């Protein structure tokens, strides 16, 4: 990912970003720290589509777990949080 300081955009206008967008999203830094990412509308739409596809896949996997009895039920929030901590420790 290409990077450009915000000061450069202020100095040269948005055209400074346009040339870099040809290569993909552009990271904009403020005081040498990443602050923003600029991308084309097409890249943004693709990102949203990928996010929706991943969401649908996660829901389908969860429904399959419920259908096959693999889903676990917890009586309290504390039990759920303990199970999450256990899973994190195993990973």
Describe this structure in words.
The protein has four helices and three strands, in the order E-H-H-E-E-H-H. It has helices at residues 6-12, 15-21, 41-67, 77-90; strands spanning 2-5, 26-30, 33-38. 1% of the residues are buried. The chain has 91 residues and is of the alpha+beta class. The protein has a three-stranded mixed sheet with strand order 1-2-3. The chain is elongated and about 60 Å long. 60% of the residues lie in helices and 16% in strands. The longest helix has 27 residues, at 41-67.
Summarize the structure.
The chain has 91 residues and is an alpha+beta fold.
Number of helices: 4
- Cross-sheet strand order for the largest sheet: 1-2-3
End-to-end gap: 30 Å
Low-confidence stretches: none
Order of helices and strands: EHHEEHH
Instruction: Please bin the fraction of helical residues.
Output: 55-70%
General form: elongated
Sheet/helix structural class: alpha+beta
Task: State which percent range the strand residues make up.
Answer: 15-25%
Largest sheet: 3 strands, mixed
Care to count the β-strands?
3
**Average pLDDT score:** 95
Rg, alpha carbons: 22 Å
What descriptors fit this protein?
single chain, alpha+beta, three-stranded mixed β-sheet, 4 helices, 60% helix
Topology diagram in text:
Blueprint: E1 2-5, H1 6-12, H2 15-21, E2 26-30, E3 33-38, H3 41-67, H4 77-90
